Amino acid sequence: MKHSSQASASQAQRPGRYSHAPAPAETVIHVPDKRLRSYDKVAPGEPTATVQQTGPGTNGEPLAYVHVPRDAPNGGRQTRPAFTLTGPDGQPLTSVRSLGDGVHEVYGGDGTPLGRIIRQSGRTLPWPRRVRWSVQPAHGGAPLTGEVGTRTAWAVFVLISPLYFLCWAVMAAQASLWLLLGEKGEAKKEAAWEMEPPTWTRWCAADEPEPAMEYRTGRKYLLDATRLDHRLAYAQAVLHVWDRA
Predict the structure, then answer these.
(1) What does 67-93 look like in DSSP terms, one character per residue?
(2) CA–CA separation, 142 vs 230, rounded Å?
């Protein structure tokens, strides 16, 4: 995903490219997820989560703050409550509203439609299908699609799942023993171990092999801001992290 300055300039002139970005053309963003799952417990006025810039030469500078109303109903993965993002200076940046069935409309700070983000659920039958995310810009920019996890990673995950559940049962029994002995700290350590399903996701246009945004692990996303509006990218990152919270 590395581009020379000349390549970036030429790409900006192509349809669907963005001529400028508020951050470097290539940046890594991080979205901690701990408070997304408990937004109803966040103190009034405080952000639920922070979209941060990370990577070499950065110190976790905030790029945007996520705000979710404390009394907002949560409809699960397919119907997240409405939320807004504000810039580091407090100015409105983005608002996201769910239409249900995994469809989310994204608007700019002035209410202008920016695009639509769609989550298509995974399934096993009648044929395996991974969770799929789609980002459809309202104007300019090709639609992007990203499937969660690779086929190989999912195949390995399914094969080793029986071993994981066996290990989990043993550790759960050990945690129960520690709890009976009054060692709550040790019990939490035993119960905290878990195996996460594959998460690698690459958002690509149909005619381009290189992703406009890529997620591997650690709630961190590599973003090419010349190919995807940073506001849509922030909204997609929040929804993607929330999906795994």
Answers:
(1) E--TT-----TTSPPPEEEE-TTS-EE
(2) 14
Distance between CA 45 and CA 65 in Å, rounded?
Answer: 11
- Give the residue carrying structure tokens 């983000």: 117
Report strand pairing: 83-86 vs 132-137: unpaired
d(CA 202, CA 215): 6
Residues 9, 11, 13, 17, CA torsion sign? negative
Question: Which residues of 61-197 form beta strands (DSSP E)?
Answer: 62-67, 83-86, 92-100, 103-108, 113-120, 132-137, 144-147
Compute the distance between CA of residue 39 and CA of residue 6 in angstroms, rounded to an integer.
44
Structure tokens at 117: 């983000």
Calpha distance 201→207 (Å, rounded): 17
Whether 96 and 235 have beta carbons less than 8 Å apart is answered as yes
Q: Mention every residue, 6+ apart, whose C-beta is less than 8 A from residue 189.
A: none
- pLDDT tens over the chain, length 245 residues: 444 333 333 343 344 455 444 555 668 899 987 789 899 999 988 999 999 998 777 778 999 999 999 999 888 888 999 999 999 999 999 999 999 999 999 999 999 999 999 999 987 666 667 899 999 999 878 899 999 876 676 566 666 666 656 665 666 666 666 666 666 665 555 455 555 677 789 999 998 889 999 998 888 999 998 899 999 999 999 999 999 77
| Whether the predicted model's global pTM rises above the 0.70 cut | yes
